[in-house]
Amino acid sequence: MSVEAVAAVLARHDHVSVVPHQQADADALGSAIGLATTVAADADTVLPDGLAQGGRRLADGLDVTLTDVDSWTPPSDTVVVAVDTPSTARLPGLDVGTVDAPLVVIDHHEPGDLSALATAEYRSTAAGATAALVPTVAAALDRPLPPTGAIGLAVGLYADTQGLAGAAKSELQCFGECVATAGSRAGEIPPLLRSRSPGFSRRMAGVKGVVRADGFRAGETLALVTTVGGEQSAVATALRSAGADYAFVVSDRDAETWVVGRSREETAPLQSVLDPLVERFGGQSGGHPEAAVAKLQTTETEAVRAAVRDHLATVLDESLTELS
């Protein structure tokens, strides 16, 4: 199904109920806000199970009205739009199969059971964020993005592409257009891209990442590989600052495993390590030679860590020795 099919369904209804996944992060909530503020119909944003830190920061910063699913009654002639989730498991408290309303799905993950339930679906697994898809829906509806929606989409896109390090060229353009659309409110965006206490939280994450890292060397080339739960970009930067020529941060992200990489300018491009991971585990990668990310379709983080070491050894054409 296509974006045109999604737009056709949305245009036929007087109300739109936008539902991000449970513990909505910045991409999920930003996509929901972007869509809810853009459609011509009345709209509400329904939370199935609270907000993650990035989503809470965005909600507080934009002062938007959110409805808990426990207190939500589907309005007449509504269409339910699930954003940034492929599965019913990520919508606790909302039985989409029993809601008397058509279902639309807008998502950038691999398809799940929501696809079979959807009246229309716009999915692009090549997109770095669901927020990158919403402007295309707005264009298909012939609706301009309002400043609030543009801010939400910019923050969501930034968050899910690792601070734009993993963004494709079109997504960088999309981010710039959202900033421009925010107009006089563009100054609201930078504070929403950071934690309320960025200094301590990032330093803490960096220290944990270094302490937990496995170190390797091949000649005079040093590599550090670690696993963390958040602040992946900050941790990768901390590993580089600790002296690593290559830094790889592995993290569990829902049904995926992400590998964030950083390297020195004169080293081999990170894609030479990350692309084989995509070939092995499935998924996608993007970014630049010295700053990139791979989003892998696996939850086996230890297998990914081992594969990072193996592929780096292949790239360096030299076996890696563990640092003691």
Automatic annotation (TrEMBL):
<feature type="domain" description="DDH">
    <location>
        <begin position="16"/>
        <end position="138"/>
    </location>
</feature>
<protein>
    <submittedName>
        <fullName>Recombination protein RecJ</fullName>
    </submittedName>
</protein>
<dbReference type="InterPro" id="IPR038763">
    <property type="entry name" value="DHH_sf"/>
</dbReference>
<dbReference type="InterPro" id="IPR051319">
    <property type="entry name" value="Oligoribo/pAp-PDE_c-di-AMP_PDE"/>
</dbReference>
<dbReference type="Pfam" id="PF01368">
    <property type="entry name" value="DHH"/>
</dbReference>
<dbReference type="InterPro" id="IPR001667">
    <property type="entry name" value="DDH_dom"/>
</dbReference>
